[in-house]
Amino acid sequence: MRNTENRFEPQDPDFERKIRDSFARQGLMKHLGAEISALRPGYCEIRATFHAELSQQNGYFHAGVSGAIADSACGYAAFSLAPRDSSVLTVEYKMNLLAPALGKTLIARGSIIRSGKTLKICRGDIFIVNDSAEQLCATTLATIMVLTGKPEHSPS
Amino acid sequence: MRNTENRFEPQDPDFERKIRDSFARQGLMKHLGAEISALRPGYCEIRATFHAELSQQNGYFHAGVSGAIADSACGYAAFSLAPRDSSVLTVEYKMNLLAPALGKTLIARGSIIRSGKTLKICRGDIFIVNDSAEQLCATTLATIMVLTGKPEHSPS
Amino acid sequence: MRNTENRFEPQDPDFERKIRDSFARQGLMKHLGAEISALRPGYCEIRATFHAELSQQNGYFHAGVSGAIADSACGYAAFSLAPRDSSVLTVEYKMNLLAPALGKTLIARGSIIRSGKTLKICRGDIFIVNDSAEQLCATTLATIMVLTGKPEHSPS
Amino acid sequence: MRNTENRFEPQDPDFERKIRDSFARQGLMKHLGAEISALRPGYCEIRATFHAELSQQNGYFHAGVSGAIADSACGYAAFSLAPRDSSVLTVEYKMNLLAPALGKTLIARGSIIRSGKTLKICRGDIFIVNDSAEQLCATTLATIMVLTGKPEHSPS
């Protein structure tokens, strides 16, 4: 609703490269097989394909996978609006699980709903896809903090 | 405080075997290298050892790992108090990150703080361990639902 | 977005009378000067007009007022979909504050996003109104439990 | 547990007067009949006595009252650790309701569990008292932001 109407101006024109570099350093995202599938100012989408290593006991995606990709999607949605030479960290998030995550692809869409200088508030919706039909299976609210003047460590 | 004073009676004397079987079917826990390190009625502890595949961009444990093992710890703390022939599912959880999860071992401790028939409310505290010193690095509150009469699917 | 597309069928055709009776028994809503301003299956809107007794220290609406009317709006959105002879109770909610609630009217809009038999998940958006311009000032996610076969106590 | 072991040093020796002045300006706290019953660095306790104007539909304390006094207790626990010439605002909180708040007195106890420079994370436990027996009836986790260099507005 309101999310799609938001038009954010990035402060760092180089935000996309910065985010893709950072994502590439997240060992967990690689370990889960997750990829950034869309990225624009105030918005980041991450998806993962099901395999048995992402399951909970009944063969669905584990809620931990939903939480992990939603957390990264929200963090990068915030990072896309942060100034150069800054980094971000998750302060907190809350997730409601709405339907079993039973399907082939899991998609987390993080959208900034309030972009303060220090804190960005983000909604993360998680969808499960089957035969190209998407179903909302979880939703999160996250608070992300911008650390201005503290760029991410490089893996030197 | 109050958690350690709680003494819960399991309804299913066989809860430990049931939980260990269920945990073994969670592909994600194996993929993260997580293990149950303590289990008693109303309490479950899960730990993971750091390796690069569990990292976020700065080399700490990814918050998604904290969330995943806390979610499983809370779920199994609840499952330990559920009747035979039931299963559990996470309704929601909220996590506050308190300190960087920089260390060798991550421990999630799930404790039931309210054991209703249908809903169990659980606190999950996550600690990072360095040289045997534990530091609280995140805390969660989770709501778990008991599905009475619906045992977990076997992996047939 | 998706909320506006949801079309819910009430199970109790008499839901509106039931909700208005219940609301009238909520001493706090009267004490806050809050009123139901819209009600339909899966949706409830509650508003309050500013006066000094609803303020925090800087003269805005106190976050407790936002929380209270959002909680009632979400509870009644859930109650509108519950069967006859049932009642509802709030399991938990989480609220993010997005902007100062400085204005004349505060509106909470509760919309069901997942209507399970036992649990209803609800989003509550809170708006502050000034000169007929609405601004989103807080957002909540709430879990509501339906107690089937347990109608509300009458104030006999 | 760990809360009682925390020993915080206030940065502003005058924190108590500052907090009591601020509390006195919260119209809502007065309207609810709430009072600060304990205050020390990193900790604030607020209580309210039941009367019909604080009720939900079944005659218990409305969850909105629990949320409001917990929010203020957490905010002032944070404010007690903030520097002179600062103010605080609630970023978000999450509350789980654990038992019906049926009784004469409601007590919210806010304790800082992580005191960062910009953000304070607080646990708020809410107890219902009957015949001097206290029962935990709700628990919250809250994030509070410190606005350094921005003292509270006076009611001039």
CATH superfamily of chain A: Hotdog Thioesterase
Gyration radius of chain A (Cα, Å) is 15 Å
Strand content of chain A: 35-45%
Task: Report the strand count of chain A.
Answer: 6
Helix content of chain A: 10-25%
Spatial strand sequence of the major β-sheet of chain A: 1-2-4-5-6-3
Which structural class is indicated by helix and strand composition of chain A? alpha+beta
Which regions of chain A have little confidence, pLDDT < 50, spanning 5+ residues?
none
What is the CATH T-level topology of chain A?
Thiol Ester Dehydrase, Chain A
Short description:
4 copies of one chain form a homotetramer. Chain A has 4 helices and 6 strands; from the N terminus they run H-H-H-E-E-H-E-E-E-E.
How does this structure look, described?
Four copies of one chain form a homotetramer. In chain A, strands 1-2-4-5-6-3 form a six-stranded antiparallel beta sheet. Chain A is built from four helices and six strands. The relative contact order of chain A is 0.20. The first copy, chain A, is an alpha+beta fold and 156 residues long. Chain A has one domain: Thiol Ester Dehydrase, Chain A (Roll), CATH 3.10.129.10. Chains in contact: A-B, A-C, A-D, B-C, B-D, C-D. Chain A binds chain C through residues 1-4, 94, 96, 98-99, 113-114, 121, 123, 136, 139, 141, 143, and chain C through 1-4, 94, 96, 98-99, 113-114, 121, 123, 136, 139, 141, 143.
